[in-house]
Fold:
Amino acid sequence: MPGLGDLREDTKHGRLLGESYLRAQLGLSLMCLTLALLLAASYPVLAALVPAVRRASVAGLPVTLIVLGFAFYPVLLGIGWFYNRQARHLEARFTELVDPPNVPPDA
Amino acid sequence: MPDAAIGAIAFVTLLTIMVGARGIRVARTTDDFMVAARQVPPALNAAAISGEYLSAASFLGIAGLVVAQGLGGLWYSVGYTAGYLVLLLLVAAPLRRFGAYTIPDFAAGRLGSAGLRQAATALVLVIGWFYLLPQMKGAGITLQWVLGTPYWVGVVTLGVVVSCNIAMGGMKGITIVQCFQYWLKLCAIGIPALVLLFAAGHSRALAPDRSQVFTSATTVSLPQATSFTLRRPAEVTVTGLLDQRQYRGQRTVLCACRHSAGAGTRLGFGAGAPVPVSLAMAPSSVSPWDSPFLTSGTNGAHPVAATYGVIIATFFGAIGLPHILVRFYTNPDGEAARRTTLIVVALLSAFYLFPAILAVLARLHAPALYLSADSDDVVLALPSLLLPGPPGSLLAALVAAGAFAAFLSTSSGLLVSVAGALSHDLLDGGVAAFRWCAVLAGAVGVAVALLIERFSLALLVGWAFAIAASSFCPLMVLGIWWRRLTRVGAATGLVVGGGCCLAAILATMFGAAGGGWGAVLLGQPAIWTVPLAFTVMVVVSLLTQRTVPSNVGQVMLRMHLPEALSRQAYRVPLNPFPAPPRPAPPRPTRAPKSGYMPIFPVGRRARRIIADSYPPRFGGVTVRNLLGLPPEPWASA
Structure:
């Protein structure tokens, strides 16, 4: 099982291990980024294609004000919270993989 | 009426100067030790980052833009917040683990090239100055509104206060002060917004005025010469110059056509009269005010594309701002950096609820505000318009104080970065050079700010973000995530992306943009310069693969591994500027007389802690200089 030593000595196994960890972190970041960008980018398109959206109002307030003024922020926070949790998770799993907690000798 | 506002502004300014000049003693007890131990708790650090980040554009500009152009202006507030989410996703933790203080340091440390450092330094200057201009403009119009002084008085006042303050050694990385600034700004915009919303009194106070008629008899005063159109004929009481005729309170019927009014003209509309449409903001007459698109800087052409330009610039621009990076170093580790950034997103979200409320209230209840050509003072003017008498004056004073806090904190952070880049990276000087550079940078900022009065605050800050997004953002993102980046590729991308973006913006400022697609591509250049910069960096790097640093795999991994693991896996800590082995120099008990002024009058043990835990350079000034210690013996060798 490749471990800390392989990372330290930069062996072939260590390099593979490191690259897979980097790819996992990058995948997580890109997924969250794509989600945020898609959500933001879809509103202008939607409003341009369906003019009814920008004329609509909810509880007397125009939809654009609700979306841009209030609704976007909880979404951004939610994505950030999810990302932080998953990134911490990935780090913990990688740590466990390369540096497993000591197993008692008789187990 | 303005007495309270004058008092409030003077109070905030004096407080800042006093904290700058004497507050080192305040800092000694809390901040210095925490920074030295890098144990600033995330909540405190996040408030400090937000305090430095929320600038004139956030405080005055967004509301002004929304009033003038419609709800699409809110894309700026969404983008400024989302910029920190993108920063969290792509750079926060790795950057903290890398340990660079400034973007030029990161570029030089990751790719090992002096030429790249020079290119990055030049861009720090461009972005820093661009960002400084709207702060100065904000100060100009705030003092104009409060005291009635000419525009230049406010600009010069802010420039002098901030540069002298920094030259004297204040406002440097004082976390507590920036944290206080955030809460001051939040209160200064939140309390007036909520009070005015309550005073406006009915649940439909935020509904849009699609009918565009005055609901009650209203007198509109035009501070500047303006032209406007009416959609229906209306009977109006006119005082002043209108359509080349002088009126003295006569009633006259205006046709449904274009009219031009002189400065100081007052128009009295009856209930049910149509609200005039200002031609100074042509876009608002093209698109209705609840349109979700933005047309600032593009003469109203292709609103969807222009909106995407703003989205790209603001989402990716925060990564490349030169004055924010330093603050990330006060987090104890990468995990704390992530937590801090998430709290920043929350704090910014809370703040940005209020400019939207104020803008909608202004649009509905104070139509005079959006008839004047420059709507950036909406937030300042609104309280006294909606709430006559002492309560309105008090709220106005609070707003003015908050606005000045915004200018002071942001421009201080920027000026430290600009002066640091000038003195440290270009001139290679010490504390004295840093002081002169602070004064010089402030003077240049003032001189340019006097010329840009006609551009809206949100637009100017948006342009600074566009330059950052098309130069530093690709450098940081690719530097952190792509091992095949080379120094030639990075330098070419910086020059091409930043250069194209700057050229497009200057073309727009000098009025070369025209209309149609040209106006969009030049006025909101991020839509093409950001992809261009990424492409150039990738392509040129692929062509110069021989110059990839040989240890790049290890450097990459150490940026991304949690600290506990990298400490075990790598015995040598990751530091782009490794301190040479320390030969235990004989430590003089007192600072030498000439050249090194002890700015931090702290005890010997504290000095040792701080000097040991800072990396050698900090914002262009060595920490040893700040502490009054002699230069380390190897520094001169």
Observations:
- Chain B touches chain A through 55 residues (CB under 8 Å).
- The mean pLDDT of chain B is 76.
